[in-house]
Structure prediction request, 81 residues.
Amino acid sequence: MAHRRVTDGHVAVLGQQIRVKVRAGFGVPLVLCNGIGASLEVLDPLVAHLDRDTTVVRFDVPGTGGSPGSLCRTDFHTWRP
Prediction:
């Protein structure tokens, strides 16, 4: 079984640098987003079980993993009744 090429880098989205990791394959890419506070590596076990011919794109949301903090000022508040 041939190994697919994996690229790891950053792309600019509206002035924000976002870390992405792409496993090259064929067809429509599968885009996976990690949870808040986790890096894209948390998805490694899932990607390892996917069809090797599937293109897989993962990214770190701003402020997690290899993506710098968001350019937008956002506040996260705990909801209280």
Notes: Residues 25 and 54 are 5 Å apart (CA to CA).
